[in-house]
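[Automated response] Your request has been received and processed.

Submitted sequence:
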Amino acid sequence: MNSRVLFLFVLLACARGADAQTESYFNGDASGVYAFTNATRWSDGVPGADATAWYTNSKSYTVTNAAGLSATNANAYFDATAQAVALDFRAGGPYWVTNVFGIGHSSFSTAGVNWAGGILLVTNAAHTATLYVGEGRKGSLTLGGGTIVADRLIATNGLNGADATLAFNGGSLQTREAEIRQPSLGNWSGGSWTASGGTNRFLTGGVFWRFRGAGENSARLVVTGNGTVWTNDATLLLGDAVNDSSRFIVSNGAKAYSSGGVTIGNLNNTVLTQSLILVSGTGAFWSSSGDFKISAAAGGDNRLTVNEGGAASFSGGNGSFIGSGVGSTGRVDITGAGSLVVFNHGLYVGSNSGSSYSKGVGTILVENGGTLEMGGALYAGEGGSGLITNHGGVYQWTLRNPAITTNSPNSIILSDGTVSFRGMTNANVLVDLKITFLGANAFRLNNASNWLAAGNPGSQDYTFDSTLGAANYARLEMINEGTAWWSKRLSIGGGGSLLVSNSSASIRAEAITNLGAVTVVNSRVRWQGNTVLGGAYVSDPSTNTFESNLTVTASGALSGGSGDQFVFYRDLVNGSTNRSQFNLAFASVLFTNGADATNHVLNLAGSGALDLGSNWISVIQLATNFAFGTLSLAAGNALSLTGGVANALYVGTLDLQGLADTNDLASRLWLGINLYYDPSQPGNTYLNGLSYDLPGAGWLIPIPEPSAFLAVGAGLALLAFLRRRR
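Generated structure:
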């Protein structure tokens, strides 16, 4: 039964009382089979909803449940001094205990319980019911079939001298919270454990835990649900039996942590296994602080799969080994945007003579936005035994100059993917990564900056362009927190691009050229060099600061909407005629003295910003005429607007910060061409809808609100004009 269905069933039912009101003892004879509802077998009648069912007979017998009947108790205690009780509830409804199901309730009890089949519910609406194994330090529970659902599971195996045991040979265990102590070699053979809430801990005192099975009875551990945590303090051996296809699944935002190592597949390479760890879904996370090995006999298929935004991290001091033992095979798949696997120490793929743990065949596949991150050396195996392939994913390093050994040609491949450096100040765009590049690839700074050699400002000069061959990066990406690019020259070619995303970024170069595409998303970016824009620049939404001059050529285009701001410390030369892509009709343009320049020039000579007169309803109608949503001028700054005889600038709001009154307009603006403003905007109230003859040949002119006839006529005139220009 699905865990969600069971818990929903419990919640919909009424919660039982926490305290038992009556007690009834069970009479069982050796080797007998008895019905739970047989009143003659109970000292005080069949236990009811508030009763305690107490099993104290030192006999081996089986308790069954008739079809159509369910057993409901507040408590069930097992306190025999010998033998074991088998509970088989397959024929009837569930055995539901709403307070405590205690095995070894008293300190003298040594007997156990075999759950043979059916459903055991140890749960209530408040999720406080508890299944104890070794409640009085002794007793045992063997799950051989059926389903056990428990709000809380406490197994005190070996704790402080306890002699209790929990055996897992089949069936299904579902917990919302658990603590299982087994301070000896743990062997769970078959069955499944689903942890779907709270903290679930498996404690062995640092020894191995084997989680295994064969064929249809292969083991299955599922940690699922946001807020669910599973922990283990020892080395986990997943899959250790013939034809073992055991699974460890972390999904739906759950977290799993192992403070020991992890081996997927048989440790000694003597049996075929097909075991898997799967980490799936946004927020799902698996972490191991010990060595990680994928090992199996030849022909086995053992793997780690991280997909759909899941993440895994391995920090073993000896490293991680994909294809660990002689004749073994192993595989890691990382697929989907946001999916991440981190190897914080050495990563060995296939057979590497320098490691006693790297003797098999290994493969890693990264694709569709997945990320493989490495914090140590990377070794691809000898004789083609180790292959690392990346199709549209990310190779990410936390080292400036990664140590990479390719023992076979073309053993590390990147196709239409990304090389990323994270969390450093000295990444090197020119480092030789010994990767075979295919397609168009990107260089990424992830909360990082690149390296600039002392006395050699051109040491990181680069042209990002797909037309220069696959080994040349086509894209520069600057993402997350603080990023910086340093060089003497930075060029984005016609086949290149630059992305700044979710970052406070700076781009410092004496000469910056963009003939391709620049996209700035949810960021603040500072351009600290003279910039020439012959391609597209799209802001969505961000603050874009140009600390030196920006020149937009005829093919160039600036685009931004509400919330986008373009800040100029010096001058803007806008010669764009790219009418289809240039759009700042909802954006803000600010001239300020961030670089101590208080006199600025906005030059429209040669641009498509034409003087179309004033008969327009609003500046929005002139979006294709290179209009600005807001033109701002910082207090104490002055602007000269220049251009050819056909040029003019239309703005929605003219924000002259610090302006005392309109008599001071002449000290702030010099107009070589006409400047039109929208008097309907609240920010223009101070202009009183008037025209002003300012220094220069141009005027400051309102866009009046014409009659409907004039508005329609003006709109048709603009459309006709633009159609002629095409």
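Summary generated for your ticket: The first strand starts at residue 22 and ends at 25. Residues 1-20, 706-726 have pLDDT under 50 and may be disordered.
If you did not submit this request, please reply to this message.
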